[in-house]
């Protein structure tokens, strides 16, 4: 029979072609067009009229030649064989086609000989991984770029080829016409053949010679006569009958079972025929029987390694199926309907005998019937298509013939064998053995692509054809752990959905990857060390925000305990069954939800694990961050998901888990603590992945999965010592892990499977105790050396504690000028204790305390210091600092011109070495030099740093990190090499932040902050003074010194214990007395001023909230004697001020958030109000202290405003007290009350009102400045020098002291 492919006319044409190198395309010439990425060429599928990428063929393949015809500013592309033009493509990612329309395309040069071809902007020719030429948007992608090779070809040669194509196309149409008579042929064929598959002639016809048989079958077309003669004469080619006549079994519906089993869809092409058709052929398919009820039968022709093509329904008898593309593989899709509910089994569907004629026998390899000799024979004698199929027991390959033959030239059984094993191991975890093979029997499918990464999707996993040499041959695959990881990872995607909580698409599948590694027997599992679990737990990091290299170990730890330690080898199958019964909402086909609660997602998995194991696994999932509260936590996971884990979700899970016995400490289990012998036949132990955690100490010291197998083993003999955050456990045996708890509340803080570990910052300062976890699920205490060690051990523990305390004391600074150091007062108690402990150690004196007790006391005090806040000196914007390098302490940073260097000169003597840190809005700093007034402006790797910026707009923003050892890292966080660094040549350059020479010691050279502190304390004392005067009878700020009795005013009603209230008052009195009456003001008496301000503020707040008294109308003010108040909304706590920025509402009264303790004199005045009498009791003009103007009603509006120019007549307002609520209603003469709108601007309203609280702040006796100073806008420092651009500090402006807190 004639084998059809698109014919090429060879005679006289080959000599007409000459090849040239890549060149610039021109109109009127013929080109072969190469893709820059794949080096394949654009070819036309003449029957399908589609473009595809193909390997460059010989010089006679005119389908790959394109004539460029000029049209306007572009070109038409006409195929030299078919004469068709490339058409415009309306859809992204869809193949370009050819047709008769003369469409215009555009060619643009990218660089050199590389060009793009487009129909418009964002519509470029692109070669996709499946060898289709599609429309794509990205012209920068190399697969969207092309090179032109000119081909010299004559017009006569082209005309000859196009004539051949037209003849070919005419023949194809004639074949299609035969398809219209299939019913007629089916009526006649049974009169000649014994069966409907037409594989045996009736005896009378079998006895005829060829000519007689043709005469007898004259009513049938010649093609059917040819088939009959071949059958009669048994004129089969090599292995032809084996593949043309076969029995095909039914396969289950992959779509249905994917939804039921929570997998991706398995293969839809389980029945390859080993026959392919070329463009223009019609395949004859004879089906021997009726399609069984409940089944469907189709023939599908598929081009390349696609898993979907064109399908045609089949019926009993002859069917005719056209093929429009070369090498279109034929598959039989015989699908039997099965379901969970039905009793119908897939094996109930009988095999169907099918006979395929026409096309070409390519063969396929089937594990059930073939061996490696068959493979070699097929590769050498049958496989002419570009794709070949290999069927295993559980998976199949649908891959490039060329690359499979290259990597498996003599053997395929080991390749499909290990892929079958991988699939079986993964399926064993799914809990599907009740339906596999009986109801569900689809194969997995692995295909090759010309380019691209490994991936998984419905119906297949896919791999780059150039890489399958690493993935198929068993020996090559086993040579590197990565080689099996990829396929196992992708097939894990196929199987993961039942346990795929949000955020775990690339995590939960790696359970199956580690499973495969483990089962192969050569390699150990992969992923982060257990220490990452415990650090993330201490940081309260939710599971979905943890790194995937760690979170994949969660699934593996469960496997190690239940399966490898042989606790329950049915665990995972039953868990997945449970999860399919109660699926996570994000994976449930009824929802596919993007917003989920914890009890609909990860806690469902945790609950199922508890139920299956009949154990309380809450501690395990607590360590893994399952119980952390999240609120719509976004996670990008092939889509946008949002997880909300509520406290109620956690409580519900904990209550559910609590019904079961407590599980052992599975969060410590590992398979990398001890060597494991190989099980693949190789010598020695399993190997670690080069970039993963190595077996041994890196993985842990205890908790190997075998340690969990003997529950009779007890943990004993352990002691621990603690030096700072470092914990060392010694001398014991039998533990599987160690847990760290807080003594205060027994909260679980940390865990470790190592004998030496460092507590993270979050828990390092806690008072702790440690327990050893045992294999039976119980814990035993681990005593500290100080508690349980012998005298020698306790003595050593004391030595360690003394050394640590000395290190802490070395970080103390009495000058208050060294950021990062402790205030001396903060470590005073430690210093005293250290002196005593040193004496006991040196004199070996245990008369007061044992060595262990001294060590414990020192440790407790150091813990207190570590946990304390506000005890380290910080950087202040008002100060100027020297920056000494930690690697070269004698050197500090100086600017020379605009360049920075490290020099030895004394910073106190040179403003070029004095720097200030100006806060930006985002916690970063700008750094300015005092001498030049310029900011650091550029930091680059190994390039000298510059300070040339005159404004912050051009300055570098730095993060300044306190390293905890008296040094700081000053880093441009946007730059990997953005840290200020002093190199060996003493040049300041940009470098990595972790180098010692990238850390700096700061020393204050010019102190501007103390004046600010003094002003803040003065303001705070004024508030304290006013408060105490309101509270205490016969108050004076020196009454303590005069030993006067302290009693409450008669109208005070304590809201707390009266003794407590008086004790607070006495404490506050001492601060007021010290500040106002002693030679040493507070700012001079105390080193830790921020802590002092916080303490006094807390006292004032406690006292203010600790009593009440009847409301009194505010005291009236007079010129030069201002009684100042804060006015606040009673409900919201917002402070009354006036608008100073929005032009539309300038000077309008507004209530805003305000911190009265973050005091600056100038700013504070706008929040201070005083009351001017009107002559009527309770009626006042309410005036602002900053503007010295009283509020008035804005004409024609309900708003209120102040007039700083004093030109507008004030409005009187009535204050009405409400003693029940402790505030005043404020109204105008018409009875309209003060209220606020949605923007908190003050308005008057007859319909609603707000309650206002009026709190006395202080009395001010200042007199308004006189002209011209009041209008002088210049700034002066306290020495009277004019300042152009004030930095934070205290200045004189307009005749007043002004405090600037930020630039």
Characterization of this structure:
With 1303 residues, the protein is an alpha+beta fold. The chain is 25% helix and 26% strand. It has a 7-stranded mixed beta sheet. The protein has a 6-stranded mixed beta sheet with strand order 23-24-25-26-28-27. A 5-stranded antiparallel beta sheet has the order 1-13-2-5-6, with no helix packed on it. Strand 37 and strand 38 form a beta hairpin. Helix 13 (510-520) packs across helix 15 (548-564) and helix 23 (828-843) runs antiparallel to helix 24. The longest helix is centred in the N-terminal third of the chain and has 24 residues, at 155-178. The protein is elongated, with a radius of gyration of 43 Å. The protein starts with 17 loop residues before the first strand and ends with a strand. Residues 8-20 and 1263-1272 have low confidence and may be disordered.
Main β sheet profile = 7 strands, mixed
Q: Kindly, what is the distance between the CA atoms of the first and last residues, rounded to a whole number of angstroms? A: 92 Å
Q: Helix share of residues? A: 10-25%
Largest sheet: spatial strand order: 35-34-37-38-32-33-36
């Amino acid at each position: 029979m004639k084998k059809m492919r698109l014919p090429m006319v060879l005679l006289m044409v080959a000599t007409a072609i000459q090849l040239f190198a890549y060149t610039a395309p021109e109109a009127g010439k013929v080109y072969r067009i190469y893709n820059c990425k794949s080096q394949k060429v654009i070819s036309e599928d003449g029957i399908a009229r589609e473009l595809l990428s193909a390997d460059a063929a010989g010089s006679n393949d005119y389908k790959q030649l394109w004539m460029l015809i000029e049209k306007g500013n572009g070109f038409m592309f006409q195929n030299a064989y078919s004469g068709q033009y490339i058409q415009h493509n309306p859809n992204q990612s869809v193949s370009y086609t050819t047709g008769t329309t003369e469409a215009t395309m555009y060619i643009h040069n990218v660089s050199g000989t590389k060009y793009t071809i487009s129909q418009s902007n964002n519509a470029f020719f692109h070669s996709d991984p499946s060898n289709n030429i599609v429309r794509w948007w990205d012209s920068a992608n190399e697969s969207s770029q092309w090179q032109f090779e000119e081909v010299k070809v004559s017009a006569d040669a082209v005309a000859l080829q196009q004539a051949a194509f037209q003849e070919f196309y005419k023949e194809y149409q004639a074949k299609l016409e035969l398809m219209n008579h299939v019913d007629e042929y089916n009526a006649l064929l049974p009169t000649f053949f014994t069966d409907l598959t037409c594989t045996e002639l009736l005896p009378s016809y079998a006895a005829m010679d060829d000519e007689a048989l043709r005469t007898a079958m004259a009513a049938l077309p010649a093609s059917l006569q040819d088939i009959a003669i071949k059958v009669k004469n048994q004129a089969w080619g090599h292995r032809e009958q084996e593949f043309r006549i076969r029995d095909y079994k039914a396969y289950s519906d992959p779509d249905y079972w994917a939804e039921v089993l929570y997998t991706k869809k398995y293969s839809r092409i389980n029945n390859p025929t080993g026959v392919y058709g070329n463009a223009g052929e019609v395949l004859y398919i004879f089906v021997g029987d009726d399609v069984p009820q409940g089944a469907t039968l189709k023939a599908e022709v598929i081009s390349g390694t696609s898993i979907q093509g064109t399908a045609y329904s089949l019926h009993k008898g002859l069917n005719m199926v056209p093929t429009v593309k070369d090498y279109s593989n034929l598959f039989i899709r015989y699908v039997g309907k099965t379901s969970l509910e039905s009793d119908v089994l897939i094996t109930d569907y009988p095999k169907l005998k099918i006979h395929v004629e026409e096309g070409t026998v390519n063969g396929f390899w089937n594990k059930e019937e073939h061996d490696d000799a068959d493979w070699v024979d097929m590769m050498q004698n049958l496989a002419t298509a570009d794709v070949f199929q290999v069927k295993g027991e559980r998976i199949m390959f649908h891959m490039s013939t060329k690359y499979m033959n290259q990597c498996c030239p003599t053997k395929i059984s080991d390749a499909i064998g290990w892929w079958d094993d991988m699939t079986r191991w993964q399926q064993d975890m799914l809990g599907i053995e009740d339906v596999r093979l009986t109801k569900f029997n689809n194969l997995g499918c692995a295909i090759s692509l010309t380019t691209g990464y490994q991936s998984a999707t419905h119906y297949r996993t896919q791999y780059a054809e150039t890489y399958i040499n690493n993935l198929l041959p068993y020996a090559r695959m086993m040579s590197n752990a990565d080689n099996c990881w990829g396929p196992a990872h992708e097939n894990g995607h196929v199987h993961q959905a039942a346990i795929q909580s949000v955020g775990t698409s690339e995590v939960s599948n790696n359970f199956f990857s580690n499973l495969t590694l483990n089962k192969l027997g050569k390699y150990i599992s992969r992923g982060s060390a257990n220490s990452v679990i415990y650090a993330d737990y201490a940081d309260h990091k939710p599971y979905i925000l943890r790194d995937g290299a760690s979170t994949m170990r969660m699934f593996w730890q469960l496997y190690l305990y239940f399966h490898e330690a042989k606790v329950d080898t049915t665990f995972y199958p039953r868990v997945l069954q449970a999860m399919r019964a109660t699926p996570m909402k994000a994976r449930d086909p009824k929802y596919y939800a993007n917003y989920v609660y914890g009890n609909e997602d990860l806690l469902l998995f945790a609950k199922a694990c508890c139920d299956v194991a009949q154990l309380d696994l809450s501690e395990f999932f607590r360590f893994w961050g399952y119980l952390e509260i999240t609120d719509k936590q976004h996670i990008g996971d092939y889509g946008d998901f949002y997880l909300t884990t509520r406290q109620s979700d956690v409580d519900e899970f904990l209550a559910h888990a609590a019904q079961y016995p407590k599980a052992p400490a599975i969060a410590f289990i590992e398979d990398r603590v001890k060597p494991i012998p190989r099980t693949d036949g190789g010598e020695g132990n399993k190997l670690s992945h080069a970039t993963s955690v190595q077996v041994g100490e890196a993985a842990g010291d205890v908790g190997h999965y075998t340690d969990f197998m003997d529950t009779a083993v007890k943990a004993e003999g352990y002691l621990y010592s603690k030096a700072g955050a470092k914990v060392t456990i010694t001398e014991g045996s039998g533990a599987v892990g160690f847990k760290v708890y807080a003594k205060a509340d027994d909260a679980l803080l940390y865990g470790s499977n190592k004998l030496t570990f460092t507590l993270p910052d979050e828990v390092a300062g806690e008072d702790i105790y440690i327990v050893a976890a045992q294999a039976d699920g119980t814990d035993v205490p681990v005593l500290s050396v100080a508690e349980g060690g012998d005298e020698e051990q306790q003595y050593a523990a004391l030595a360690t504690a003394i050394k640590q305390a000395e290190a802490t004391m070395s970080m103390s600074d009495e000058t208050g000028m060294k950021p990062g150091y402790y205030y001396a007062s903060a470590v005073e108690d430690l210093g005293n204790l250290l002196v005593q402990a040193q004496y006991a150690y040196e004199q070996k004196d245990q008369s007061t305390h044992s060595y262990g007790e001294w060590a414990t006391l020192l440790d407790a005090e150091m813990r207190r210091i570590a946990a304390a806040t506000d005890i380290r000196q910080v950087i202040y914007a008002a100060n100027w600092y020297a920056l000494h390098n930690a690697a070269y302490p004698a050197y500090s940073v100086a600017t020379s011109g605009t360049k920075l260097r490290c020099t030895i000169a004394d910073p106190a003597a040179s403003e070029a070495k004095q720097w200030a840190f100006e806060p930006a809005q985002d916690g970063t700093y700008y750094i300015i030099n005092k001498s030049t007034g310029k900011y650091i402006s550029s930091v680059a790797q190994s390039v000298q740093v510059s300070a040339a910026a005159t404004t912050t707009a051009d300055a570098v923003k730095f993060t300044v990190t306190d390293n905890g050892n008296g040094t700081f890292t000053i880093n441009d966080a946007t730059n990997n090499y953005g840290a200020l660094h002093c190199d060996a040549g003493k040049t300041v350059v940009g470098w990595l932040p972790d180098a010692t020479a990238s850390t700096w010691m700061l020393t204050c050279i010019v102190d501007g902050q103390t004046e600010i502190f003094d002003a803040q304390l003065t303001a705070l004392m004024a508030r304290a003074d006013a408060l105490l005067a309101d509270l205490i009878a016969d108050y004076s700020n020196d009454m303590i010194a005069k030993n006067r009795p302290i009693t409450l005013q008669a109208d005070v009603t304590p809201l707390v214990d009266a003794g407590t209230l008086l004790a607070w008052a006495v404490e506050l009195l001492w601060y007021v007395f010290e500040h106002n009456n002693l030679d040493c003001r507070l700012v001079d008496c105390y080193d830790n001023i921020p802590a002092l301000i916080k303490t006094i503020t807390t006292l004032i707040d406690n006292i203010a909230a600790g009593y009440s008294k009847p409301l009194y109308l505010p005291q009236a003010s007079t010129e030069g004697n201002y009684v100042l108040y804060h006015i606040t909304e009673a409900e919201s706590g917002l402070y009354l001020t006036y608008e100073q920025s929005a032009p539309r509402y300038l000077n309008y009264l507004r209530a805003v958030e305000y911190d009265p303790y973050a005091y600056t004199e100038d700013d504070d005045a706008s929040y201070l109000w005083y009351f001017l009498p009107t002559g009527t009791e309770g009626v006042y003009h309410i005036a602002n202290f900053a503007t010295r103007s009283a509020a008035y009603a804005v004409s024609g509006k309900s708003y209120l405003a102040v007039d700083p120019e004093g030109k507008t007549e004030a409005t009187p307002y009535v204050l009405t007290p409400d003693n029940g609520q402790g505030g005043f209603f404020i109204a105008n003469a018409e009875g309209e009350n003060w209220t606020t709108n949605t923007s908190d601007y003050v308005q008057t309203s007859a319909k609603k009102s707000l309650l206002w609280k009026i709190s006395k702040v202080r009395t001010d006796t200042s007199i308004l400045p006189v002209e011209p100073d009041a209008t002088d806008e210049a700034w002066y420092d306290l020495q009277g020098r004019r300042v152009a651009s004030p930095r934070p500090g205290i200045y004189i402006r307009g005749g007043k002291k002004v405090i600037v807190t930020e630039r």
